[in-house]
């Protein structure tokens, strides 16, 4: 018998180790807020896909001497732009107007901890990338049981690709470092968990506990 995505519980879709990599799960209050604000969720989701492509593109410009990073980031940027197109199309079909909204505190709250000297800078950017991808993956999986069939199917596909992006970022971070990165991962994962667990005034895809 073939097992299809529909037979899997959402956590089965997550890459091994992802839930241990993140220091906390998404609070239930965020899930409730997301279900109460489906339009805002999709608009910010579109923003996140676009930003993910742009982050990968900026690495392509800065680290031209690293072939593995170039091929992974080029592929990732293309996939994120495809996700962006898919979200925008879904919004159009649902009559949701795309408008400018402010970014959440999340990405900036992580990037402020990135070291300024190389190779620490690159290692930290890649770990932050892994955290953002892992959190997106975890949130998609948590949302799936509550969504309509079309959105649930779309998010199942995203869990797989964002899960792969998390693994690629982590692999690249290990590759870029001269030694073990465990301490850095622990430090940044703890900051990430704070941003997710602390009260947040603006609801967004990566926001904290709704204040
Ligand atoms: Fe994506
Ligand atoms: Fe991604």
From TrEMBL:
PANTHER family: TRNA 2-(METHYLSULFANYL)-N(6)-ISOPENTENYLADENOSINE(37) HYDROXYLASE, TRNA-(MS[2]IO[6]A)-HYDROXYLASE. Pfam families: MiaE (PF06175). InterPro entries: Ferritin-like, Ferritin-like_SF, tRNA-Hydrxlase_MiaE. The keyword S-adenosyl-L-methionine does not apply. SUPFAM superfamilies: Ferritin-like. It comes from the Bacteria. It comes from Halomonas organivorans. This is tRNA-(Ms[2]io[6]A)-hydroxylase. GO terms for biological process: tRNA modification. Coiled coil: none annotated. Transmembrane segments: none annotated. Its EC number is 1.-.-.-. Keywords: Oxidoreductase. One of its GO terms (molecular function) is tRNA 2-(methylsulfanyl)-N(6)-isopentenyladenosine(37) hydroxylase activity.
């Amino acid at each position: 018998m073939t097992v299809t995505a529909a037979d899997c519980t959402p956590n089965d879709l997550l890459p091994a180790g992802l839930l241990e990599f993140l220091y906390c799960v998404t609070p239930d209050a965020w899930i409730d807020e997301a279900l109460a604000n489906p339009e805002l969720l999709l608009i910010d989701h579109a923003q996140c896909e676009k930003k993910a492509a742009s982050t990968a593109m900026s690495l392509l410009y800065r680290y031209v001497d690293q072939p593995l990073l170039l091929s992974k980031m080029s592929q990732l940027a293309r996939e994120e732009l495809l996700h962006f197109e898919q979200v925008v199309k879904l919004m159009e079909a649902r009559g949701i107007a795309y408008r400018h909204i402010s970014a959440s505190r999340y990405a900036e709250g992580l990037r402020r901890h990135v070291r300024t000297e190389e190779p620490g800078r690159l290692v930290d950017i890649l770990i932050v990338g892994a955290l953002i991808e892992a959190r997106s993956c975890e949130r998609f999986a948590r949302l799936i049981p509550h969504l309509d069939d079309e959105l649930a199917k779309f998010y199942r596909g995203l869990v797989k690709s964002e899960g792969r992006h998390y693994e690629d970022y982590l692999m690249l971070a290990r590759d870029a470092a001269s030694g073990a990165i465990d301490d850095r991962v622990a430090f940044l994962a703890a900051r990430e968990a704070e941003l997710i667990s602390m009260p947040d005034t603006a609801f967004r895809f990566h926001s904290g506990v709704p204040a």
